[in-house]
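Exercise 3.2. Students should predict the tertiary structure of the chain below and write it as structure tokens, then compare their answer with the key that follows.

Predict this chain's 3D structure.
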Amino acid sequence: MHNLLIFKTEKLLRQALTHRSYVNEHPEEGEQNERLEFLGDAILNFLSGEYLYKRYPEKEEDELTRRRSALVDEKQLAKFAIEVGLDFRMRLGQGAIRDGGFHNPNLLSSTFEAVLGAYYLDKNSNIEAVRAIVEPLFDSVSEKIVVSRSNVDSKNRFQEWVQREIGANPPKYMTEQIGGPSHAPEFVAKVLVDGKEYGIGKGRNKKEAEKDAAEDALAKLKKRGLLE
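Answer key:
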């Protein structure tokens, strides 16, 4: 068993593996994993940024950003999830299972983040314990990453434009669920800068909706001739 699945508090691991679709069918289970996913995402972004900063001292910010985007994108995190054995341990509702949930990159990547968040808490908020888990995974793929402008996700590209053309305040995303079944919810996101709306997007989760909103903002900027 991979170390990422060895917990002192089994309840914490169980929550990290529990998707909202499972809780909707088994309400006695209590909390699902989205809060842990939020925590794991923040930890992963910090550790991946620090890892690349140290590994590539000669690289500039733009290239480090592209490498980080590729290192922690949905497809790569889904591969990490499978590598550590999370795929068939995810606790999904029957609808999600029928829709191929055990192989769904979105569910896999989200669960990976949730388990990282839970692991951090299980180890008494010790970031070094999480670093010991993720750095070998990063090592296994870091040299295989093809660095191109397309590796920078739309949220990062829009933030770069905002910082270059408007100021230091980063874009803010307002995201909410608007419908859909428990195993395939629909979200809508708006991206604002200094209170002004720049784009709107939809997706199957918050990240996807926010990415779509950023893409909408970039498309509008291009249409106005403000972005190449």
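Discussion points: Strands lie at 172-179, 186-193, 196-203. The CA atoms of residues 87 and 102 lie 5 Å apart.
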